[in-house]
Structures are given as structure tokens and as C-alpha cells.
User: What shape does this take?
Amino acid sequence: MEPLAFVEIVNRHRDVLARHPVYRWPIRVGRGYDADVIVDDPFVAPRHLQIEPAGDGRYAVSDLQSLNGISVSPSERRISAAEVGPDDLVRLGRTQIRIRAPSYPMSEERPLRAAAFYRRPSVFALAAAVVIALILWNLWIMTSDQEEKYTIWLSVLPLLAAVAVWISIWSLVSRTVGGRSNFAAHGFVACAGFAALALSETLFEYLSFGFDLRWIQYLSFAAGAAIFAYMVYRHLRLNSRALRRTLAIAGVVVSIVLYGAAAGLQVATELAQEGLQRYDGSVKAPMFLFVSGASPEAFVSDGESLKRKVDAAARVER
Assistant: This one.
């Protein structure tokens, strides 16, 4: 006997979780064992919904006086009866169903494609190696004590632990929401993002040094915020099928909040250190300096002028 229709149970992404053939009309959907389509949902009544044909490929659905009722997406308004087509979703409890005839046209078979390169564990391992190398290099050039240069690898451990926690959290969310952890993919996104952040910060430091313009370093905040927003967006893409625009907005909001707080903290620190001598913790080669500095004579003259001002201020205080 050929099925008259199929009742499909779908998830929030409209993926089919189960298909139940229909051999007679009307049928009942519910949690009870006497239902024609059994739904394992505690928010569904034993006899929740009745379905029968309404003609022209449509179906009549009616609530069987359940507690939570039914609704037709995208509306959440509770209704007692409705006519639905093959693409309409009927919600009962926390379950979504749709009814389709056996003649409903199916989409073409999708070709199998190789996994994206960033999902491969080997690519994640390579990105992790790059991040470790960048961290070690930055610590090396920032360390002046020769003996400490051979123990800087101990300082890498907390940073690596932080990156590992970041990746693990995203992977856990991915496992919870989509059933797959995507650990290698999240790992690559995180490592690539942190590497881009480190390179961006270094680039703006050298530009600020080369042109003797301190304000250029503030541009690194904007660049870092953009990179971080894109990194969060890529993590969200691995975890959600929401619209790309929605995910992009979420990434921008998260980045603005975090980088705004970091910028505020830096400004507060600089205000607290107003009047103190500023210096760069890393030594840069003169070849990266693109502007002419003060001559030795002008530097000595400025030093003497500053000394006279300090001496005069000291005498006034006495």
C-alpha cells in the first residue's frame, strides 16, 4: 500500500529528523502510544493534533483540546485549526512538523566536497605552531636579561592555556548546538585570529616608531577590533545557521564591548601616568625610522633647558 502523505518532524534549521508515512485519514499526532505519529515531547499531549486532507495539496490541522495548543510558523499565536501547505511548519509543544505528499519535488543531490582546509587537524597544528612562535618571538625581544631569555617559555604556558580554553568553549557550544565539536576548525580560527592580532599590533608599533607619531598606535585598536569581530563571526558561523548579517552584527557588538573596555582601561592608565617618562619596551633598529630626529646639539640644549626648569621649581618648593 502506497503512503498517502508523510508527516515530517523537523528541527529549527528545517532539517528533517524523522519521516512518518500516512496510510489513512484522519490521523492523530501526540505523545500517546495510540497516536498515529508518536512525538517524544513532554510538552505535547497524548492526543494533541489531528490531520486530514483539505484538497489542492493542502491539509487541515486541528487542535484536540491540548494544554499548549498549536501554532503555524512564523507566528506563535495559538490557534485551534488551520489549513497548511507542504512548506508550512506546525508547532506543537517544542516540536515542529510539516505534511508533504509523496509527489512533493525533492531538491537535487548535492555533490560531496572535500572538507574545508581549515577543518583539517594538520592545518590547525600549523596555525598553533605559528602562534607559539610569535609569542616566543615577542617575549624574546621584550626581555633584556640574557638569563631570562632561556626561561621565557614558562611565560608561554598561561597564554597557551587561555587560547586552549577559548577553543574548548567554542567547541563545547558547537557540540551542544550542532552535535559536532568542530575542534580543529575552531582551533584554526582562534589561532589565525590571534596571529593576525599580534602581527597587526607589531605593524602599528613599527609605523608609530618609524614616523614618530604616537597616535598611530591608537589605530591598532581599530584594526584589532575589526580582526576580533571577524574571528568571533567565524566562530559563530561554525555554530549557527542564522543569517550571516545577524552573525556579523553579533561579532561587531562583542568586539566593540571588549575593545571599548580595553581602550577605556588604557586611557585611564595613561591619565594616571601623566607626566611620567614614556618609553618603548622593545628596541627597534634605526633602519625602521623614516623621519629625522633631533640633532645632538638640540637634544643637549633641550636637556639643559629642562634642567634649569627643574632646578627653579626645586628652589621655589624650598
Summary: The radius of gyration is 32 Å. The beta strands are 5-10, 16-22, 27-30, 37-38, 49-55, 58-63, 70-72, 81-84, 90-92, 95-100. The chain has two domains: 5-100, 117-272.
